[in-house]
């Protein structure tokens, strides 16, 4: 999962406090890029992509999402965003004056065709200093739609516990590893029982479940890069393609071949 992110992007729209301009947007085609620094801003944010794959990281979670999904970043939530390979990013920033009734926690969600069309329309406004009455009505439709968002399971919980962080970083740098929990417990200088307990306490899931979800999120990324199902299965360390397909469908409700189908 290590990528040379050659481009750093800095977008200041999230720091604007201006009720007369309740939504600002940014859209661009970028390659191997990331936000300059981990940051937080008073405006909430929708981060989406029309093509490609994004990775969004907060102190508690990691999301890898494709063009069918988006991430809602709550106001003042510290985050970092990575855009591996070619990505057309679409993002909107929501002023604090419009946040009443909107989600207070960050999460990934499935992007409806209706929401995507609203975002595209608002992007076409080109961030005017003042919105027209017609534009404000469209903004209200967006806000109403955002109030109904439901989180998806496309995420990886993280932890600030140094022992857990060491294990997670090691796993993310070698997601095809076949080492057991005993190996990682030794790496973190704790007993296997302690590490197992830490995973349930800090992450809300077992070591095996977290490792499985890591592989499936990597699979999403590779599918977005148009890798074959067979190639992905073997890259992730599966013994055969069928076992990968079964695991993928069990988690996402779709086969890998159907996952990106629109």
In short:
By secondary structure, this protein is of the alpha+beta class.
**Alpha-carbon distance between the two ends:** 26 Å
Mean pLDDT: 89
In one word, what is the shape?
A: globular
- Cα-atom Rg, whole angstroms? 19 Å
Share of residues in strands: 15-25%
Q: Mind summarizing the main beta sheet?
A: 9 strands, mixed
Please identify the structural class as seen in this structure.
alpha+beta
Total beta strands: 9
Helix content: 25-40%
Which H/E pattern describes the elements?
Answer: EEEEEEEEHHEHHHHHHH
Counting DSSP H or I runs of 4 or more residues, the number of helices is 9
Low-confidence stretches: none
Structure, explained:
The chain is an alpha+beta fold and about 260 residues long. Helices cover about 35% and strands about 25% of the residues. It has nine helices and nine strands. Strands 1, 2, 3, 4, 5, 6, 7, 8 and 9 form a nine-stranded mixed β-sheet that branches. Strand 4 (about 55-60) and strand 5 form a beta hairpin. The longest helix has 18 residues, at about 205-225. The chain is globular and about 60 Å long. About 30% of the residues are buried.
Write the layout of secondary structure elements.
Elements: E1 7-9, E2 23-35, E3 44-51, E4 54-58, E5 61-65, E6 69-73, E7 79-94, E8 107-110, H1 113-123, H2 133-146, E9 156-157, H3 162-172, H4 181-187, H5 192-203, H6 207-224, H7 229-235, H8 241-252, H9 256-259
Parallel strand pairs: 1-2
Antiparallel strand pairs: 2-7, 3-6, 3-7, 4-5, 4-7, 5-9, 6-8
Helix pairs in contact: 1-2, 4-5, 7-8
């Amino acid at each position: 999962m290590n990528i040379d992110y050659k481009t750093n992007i800095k977008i200041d729209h999230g720091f604007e406090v201006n009720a007369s301009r309740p939504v600002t947007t940014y859209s661009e085609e970028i390659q191997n890029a990331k936000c300059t620094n981990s940051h937080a801003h008073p405006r909430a944010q929708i981060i989406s992509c029309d093509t490609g794959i994004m990775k969004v990281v907060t102190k508690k979670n990691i999301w890898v999402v494709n063009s069918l999904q988006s991430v809602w970043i709550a106001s003042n939530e510290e985050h970092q965003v990575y855009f591996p390979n070619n990505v057309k990013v679409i993002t909107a920033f929501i002023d604090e004056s419009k946040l009443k009734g909107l989600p207070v926690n960050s999460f990934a969600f499935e992007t409806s065709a209706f929401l995507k069309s609203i975002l595209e329309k608002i992007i076409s406004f080109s961030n005017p200093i003042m919105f027209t009455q017609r534009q404000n009505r469209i903004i209200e439709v967006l806000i109403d739609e955002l109030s109904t968002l439901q989180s998806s399971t496309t995420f990886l919980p993280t932890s600030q516990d140094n022992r857990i962080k060491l294990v997670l970083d090691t796993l993310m740098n070698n997601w095809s590893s076949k080492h057991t929990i005993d190996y990682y417990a030794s790496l973190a200088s704790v007993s296997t029982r302690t590490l197992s307990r830490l995973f349930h306490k800090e992450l809300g899931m077992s070591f095996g479940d977290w490792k499985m979800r890591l592989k499936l999120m990597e699979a999403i990324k590779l599918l977005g890069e148009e890798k074959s199902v067979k190639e992905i299965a073997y890259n992730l360390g599966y013994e055969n393609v069928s076992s990968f397909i079964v695991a993928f469908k069990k988690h996402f409700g779709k086969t890998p071949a159907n996952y990106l189908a629109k």
